[in-house]
Fold this sequence. Notes:
Layout: H1 7-16, E1 25-28, H2 32-44, E2 47-50, E3 53-58, E4 61-70, E5 76-77, H3 79-84, H4 93-111, E6 123-127, H5 135-145, E7 151-158, H6 161-167, E8 173-178, H7 198-206
Parallel strand pairs: 1-2, 1-6, 6-7, 7-8
Antiparallel strand pairs: 3-4, 4-5
Amino acid sequence: MEVFADRAEAGAQLAERLLDARDPVVLALPRGGVAVALPIARRLDAVLDVLVTRKIGYPAAPELGVGAIAEGGEPVFDLRMLRRLRMTPESVADVVERERRELARRVRAYRGDRPLPPLEGREVIVADDGLATGGTARAALRAVGTAKPAKLTLAVPVGAQETVASLREEADEIVVLLTPIDFRAVGQWYAHFEQLTDADVLDLLGRR
Length: 208
């Protein structure tokens, strides 16, 4: 059942729920989160930037996430999943190193040599297009948390109920428009949910 026409519409709806934010920094999780974050930053007249994350996949089936890493943070593992697979964090060290390299490549592609904006003492809104397992969002929130923001908010249009509940301890506030019982995938709640490219991300950032 489609609820949002596209990520931009979802972001515009989220922005109306974030109007109490005081001079926030909006950090988008690329790639899809950038299209959600742009209308939020515009509505709040906020600084917009990206916070790059990468999923850490199970080597035999890379689409199965066993953890994630965000720039400025350490890997965050799904320990229950690792135990189920009879693995340890050390078992995926090669995958972590590969994802660190790809993370660094994307940071250079999206931001060049420019660092993240200062976050200490600021309100920070981390935005993505949805929450399935929540692995990358968790890694992002923990990485931002080390910068000691005044308030840390996670803003997403849609998320699995159990995932949203599991992330509440990672942020001061979670703003989510929809937590459907029959959640199967983020894309099912959008009429248009095309995959974005690095060029799309740069275009969106340039339109701030």
